[in-house]
Amino acid sequence: MAITIAVLGFYVYHDQLLTASQTFSIISTFSVLTTALTNLPDLISKMTEANLSLNRISKFLYASEIEPLTTRGLQVGQDEVYALAIENGSFQSMSQPILQSLW
């Protein structure tokens, strides 16, 4: 609002005739500009985040495929070392057992 008053004062200071229609137009214009400039930092932040996200998605989509030999399923009973083994496991939620004596 201070900028609007300063512009109107500058306009009158230079011996210009200030009518009601000109005043309304100037106030409306500065109101629109103030709203736009108030939202500008949020817009810059969101655009930066969107650019970063798009770069990450692009990097993921252009990445090479995982080679089939690096992932393989193990069958039960093979003589290989397992990454995770459960023997006589018991799992429960609250007080009631859900799974018991696995493998």
Largest sheet: 2 strands, antiparallel
Distance linking N and C termini:
76 Å
Query: In DSSP terms, counting alpha (H) and pi (I) runs of 4 or more, how many helices?
Result: 2
What shape does the CA trace take? Answer: elongated
Identify the quaternary structure here: single chain
What is the mean predicted local confidence, pLDDT?
79
Explain what this protein looks like in three dimensions.
52% of the residues lie in helices and 12% in strands. The protein is mainly α and 103 residues long. A two-stranded antiparallel ribbon has the order 1-2. It is elongated.
Please give the structural blueprint.
Elements: H1 2-13, H2 20-61, E1 89-93, E2 96-102
Antiparallel strand pairs: 1-2
